[in-house]
Amino acid sequence: MIDFATDSTFKLTPASTRDARSVEPLLIHGEELIHAFKSVRDLVVFTNKRIIAVDVQGMTGKKKDFTSLPYSKVQVFSVETAGTFDMDAELELWFSAVGKVRFEFRSGADIRQISQMIATYVL
């Protein structure tokens, strides 16, 4: 599970459709995959209802933790675009009663589009 007591950060690059499909068994009726991003082993999938963070554990990677972060629990969010020297964009989300999650996007992610998507489902 995401450690909400500390500043959890996911450093992400766009993921393949195949990677994103690994969360399909968790989706509910009417829920659709929108975007997927991965780190070295972990995966973050944005749907039209929530964010699903997949934490791959252990040496073999067979054990996985799936954390569901519903948009309905987001109280505040912040977006920081990439700059000239800092090429990473950031998205911070504060969830009621649990804390903050920070996503750092490497090049190739359209942070403005992600921000609009978050706003659509949160506001």
From TrEMBL:
Residues of the Bacterial Pleckstrin homology domain = 20-122
Q: Which domain of life is it from?
A: Bacteria
- Spell out the Pfam families in the cross-references: bPH_1 (PF08000)
Q: Which Gene3D superfamilies match?
A: Bacterial Pleckstrin homology domain (2.30.29.50)
Kindly give the CDD domains that the UniProt entry links to this protein.
PH-like_bacteria (cd13225)
Protein name (Swiss-Prot/TrEMBL)? PH domain-containing protein
Organism the protein comes from? Kineosporia babensis
Q: Lineage from the top down?
A: Bacteria, Bacillati, Actinomycetota, Actinomycetes, Kineosporiales
